[in-house]
Design brief:
The structure is a single chain. By secondary structure, this protein is an alpha/beta fold. The protein folds into two domains: about 1-30 and about 275-404, Lyase, Ornithine Decarboxylase, Chain A, domain 1 (Beta Barrel), CATH 2.40.37; about 30-275, Alpha-Beta Barrel (TIM Barrel), CATH 3.20.20. The protein is built from twelve helices and 20 strands. The strands form three sheets. Strands 4, 13, 14, 15, 16, 17, 18, 19 and 20 form a nine-stranded mixed β-sheet that branches. The two termini are about 35 Å apart. Bound molecules: ligand LLP. Ligand LLP binds next to helix 10 and helix 11.
Length: about 400
């Protein structure tokens, strides 16, 4: 994705051309970036030869999941819907793991019937529910248990999941109890220890701490896990921070603490695979002048991209056509929704904009469209996948008629 003679292109396609055809707001993804991210991820963990299960919650677009499947990844799902989608995309069920704190009877049954690799369980009651279903079907079901390693991921508070007070996983004591219980189970086969401490992580220390806890537990428990599922969480750079996740350090730490056990490592990355593959193109409806700043009112709102309103997340905003004329006022980019948190960012030094201009909200490939909603009864945007010069409609714009 780059400017060619001041005009923004996704691979070989100009945004001018795209928006003329598909209107705005519009999600647009680059296949080339997706492929590059997946190859880099594999390369970065090549010493571990892991099973990489793409976290479908970060992007649940069928066409994109199909491409991810073709590039060799499995799936991490958290609902029946995501599981159905992953299967529809052609992902081998033996490459699918099912996570989540509250899987219902119907979801568990569906997962068992489809013979997925692992159900990662997070409560005693769920383990017993799985056992009951397995028994009734006279099956043996492979599961993992998600441990809460009591580790602060040092990321945004709202996306940290591995601390004592978080609802995720089970504590060490329950973990030991469940392992002992399952040793005797005829219908549930415990094969995996799973963890996931949070998202958008850059610091290797929380990962080290998590690995130390796993090491301690496995060395005490004397139980052979076939898999250790380390979840996802690897951070990406948003905006100008230029932060880089150090994969090499993480791989070294994994080898240091877990190498001796020879388990198959599973990862569940979402953001690091799709985050920077997508942009959201939006048109300026109005510019409202104010004494200290100008409100740039976009046709994309918090229902289309929820991250800023929900987490205070920052996404860089750039123009589709570059100019050298700068405004001396602060631009506050806001959506049209009736909520004060419906704003994207404030920019002090931005080029002069006018109504009907197009802007780009960057790095929205993860938790962008998948977190979108129909709030204010707004149809969800179309989604386009660009492959060189090829334009693939990955999702049609919702029609109002279907919502009303
Ligand atoms: N595995 C489990 C069990 C998870 O809960 C998650 C994310 C992942 C894997 C993938 O994590 P990733 O590699 O994408 O960091 N909506 C928030 C992020 C919430 C993440 C939830 N769990 C956001 O927009 O930043």
């Amino acid at each position: 994705m780059k400017y060619i003679k001041n005009k923004f292109f996704v691979e070989n396609v100009s945004l001018q051309k795209l928006t003329k055809k598909f209107d705005t707001p519009l999600y647009c993804y680059s296949y080339k970036k997706l492929k590059k991210n997946i190859n880099n991820f594999k390369l970065n963990f090549s010493k571990l030869n892991p099973l990489i299960c793409f976290s479908v919650k970060s992007n649940s677009n069928l066409k994109i999941i199909k491409e991810i499947k073709k590039l060799g990844l499995g799936a991490d799902v958290v609902s029946k819907g995501e599981l159905m989608l992953a299967i529809k995309a052609g992902i081998n069920p033996k490459k699918i793991v099912f996570s989540g704190v509250g899987k219902t009877y119907s979801e568990l049954k569906y997962a068992i019937e489809n013979k997925i690799l692992l159900i990662n369980s997070e409560t005693k009651s769920e383990v017993k529910e799985i056992e009951k279903i397995a028994k009734s079907k006279n099956k043996i079901v492979d599961i993992g248990i998600r441990l809460n390693p009591n580790t602060d991921a040092k990321t945004l508070n709202k996306i940290s999941t591995g601390k004592k007070g978080d609802k995720f996983g089970v504590n060490e004591k329950t973990f030991f109890e469940l392992v002992n219980y399952l040793k005797k189970s005829k219908h549930v086969n415990l094969r995996c220890l799973s963890v996931h401490i949070g998202s958008q992580i850059f610091d290797n220390k929380p990962y080290e701490k998590m690995l130390k806890v796993i090491d301690k537990i496995i060395s005490r428990i004397k139980f052979k896990f076939d898999y250790i599922d380390l979840g996802g969480g690897m951070g990406i750079s948003y905006g100008n921070d230029r932060k880089i996740f150090n994969y090499s350090n993480y791989q070294k730490s994994i080898l240091k603490y877990l190498g001796k056990y020879n388990n198959k490592i599973i990862f569940e990355p979402g953001r690091s695979i799709v985050g920077n593959t997508g942009i959201l193109i939006s048109k300026i409806i109005y510019i409202k002048e104010n004494k200290s700043k100008n409100f740039v009112i976009l046709d994309a709102g918090m229902n289309d991209l929820m991250r800023p309103a929900l987490y205070g997340a920052i996404h860089k905003i750039i123009p589709t056509i570059k100019s050298k004329k700068y405004s001396n006022k602060t631009y506050e980019f806001v959506g049209p929704i009736c909520e004060s948190t419906d704003k994207f960012s404030s920019n002090k030094k931005f080029q002069k904009l006018k109504e009907k201009d197009l802007i780009i909200i960057c790095d929205v490939g993860a938790y962008g469209s998948s977190l979108s909603s129909n709030y204010n009864l707004r149809p969800k945007p179309a989604e386009i996948l660009i492959k060189g010069s090829k334009i693939v409609i990955a999702k049609k714009r919702q029609k109002l008629i279907d919502l009303i």
